[in-house]
Amino acid sequence: MSAPAPAAAPRCRSCGAALTRTVLDLGEQPLANSYLTAEQLAAGNEPAYPLHVRVCDDCLLVQVDDVVPAEEIFSDYAYFSSYSDSWVEHARRYAHFAAERLGLGAGSLVVEVASNDGYLLQHFVALGVPVLGIEPAANVADTARAAGIPTETRFFGEQCARDLVARGLRADLIVGNNVLAHVPALNDFVEGLSILLADEGVITIEVPHLLELVRHVEFDTIYHEHFSYYSVLALQPLFARHGLRLFDLEQLPTHGGSLRLWVAHNGSSHATTPNVERIRNLELDAKLDRPEGYAGFADRVARVIEGMRTFVAEQRDAGRLVAAYGAAAKGNTLLNACGITSDDIAFVVDRNPNKQDHYLPGSHLPILGPEAVAERRPDFLVILPWNLRDEIVEQMSEIRTWNGRFVVPIPDVTVLD
Hints:
By secondary structure, this protein is an alpha/beta fold. The chain has helices spanning 38-43, 70-74, 85-102, 121-126, 138-146, 158-166, 186-196, 210-215, 232-240, 274-285, 297-317, 329-338, 371-376, 389-395; strands at residues 21-29, 49-55, 62-64, 110-113, 131-134, 151-152, 171-177, 197-208, 228-229, 244-252, 258-265, 322-325, 348-349, 367-368, 380-383, 405-408, 414-415. Strands 6-5-4-7-8-11-10 form a seven-stranded mixed β-sheet. It has a six-stranded mixed β-sheet with strand order 14-13-12-15-16-17. Strands 1-2-3-9 form a four-stranded antiparallel β-sheet, with helices on one face.
């Protein structure tokens, strides 16, 4: 009997080339935002899927295998942006800056794709600028509409854009904050942006920067719903394929280091700034255009995992109570990569009532309200959404009254003084 034929290599979702180079393989993991009810936990049939990161040798896009339909992840979603005060303030500052830079007013239209609960568009409404949100998660879109933000419940792509244009809509500004990573049909999505954008309009997109992910071992930002991880090197050919170009870039501290992309039609009057070439050169210096740039990343991830395992084991053996703050998707990747369970970390707290009284996927930590910290008085509180460290330390400063201490797990396990 002949041996079975090897499985065909997956294809790049940007350029279509075969993906043959692994960056990191995190094994099988549950969906990072699929929080379990007590009944689901008792049933014991939680699905898990391969979480395998590859880089395209042709167009340099870093991506995970497409193993879960987007509809399964985003149609009912547990993440509500408004529960982070610092993120809402970030959105407010952006809205004022963009309105001034682009001269937006009552005759303009701002469209946000993946507009969530209206956390950002509310600030344009306050400035008197007409808005439209496009949000696929029905439960989140309902919250936005209840707050007075016009929102359509659908996935964005080429057909959605054509439908909007047929209704006489063209956007002066399209906003996509932390959505491009969530898009499996990448070319369909970017073509939709190009169709909906007015001739002199602007697209701004915020994405975590691959350069910072690699530099700071931010592997916990890798999960199934983050289909792609972006560099300028990979973004430029993607946009060019759809008649768009990057004309400006900003480096932001959000999400462990992000880029804000300013994008326009090729034929528009927006002049390209030196920032584009400057940040592209940083990526070239880090060798993100060749295999050497990714060599050793998996070993650095393994060291972080071992450090976290050692920390929780030492505290458990010493009889100390460890809890966590933030039922965040990135925390679920970390906990499941480490094999941590409620035997190691007793519980996690979160401000979002939609997550409370559920259990984290995989690790099965119970999710409680923040008041549980004062009630249970843990010796250590692990900050899983470490990108919000300062906000959380301020909110939970009470733990210092019983000599509790904060712990940040990335890029190394660090106990804060």
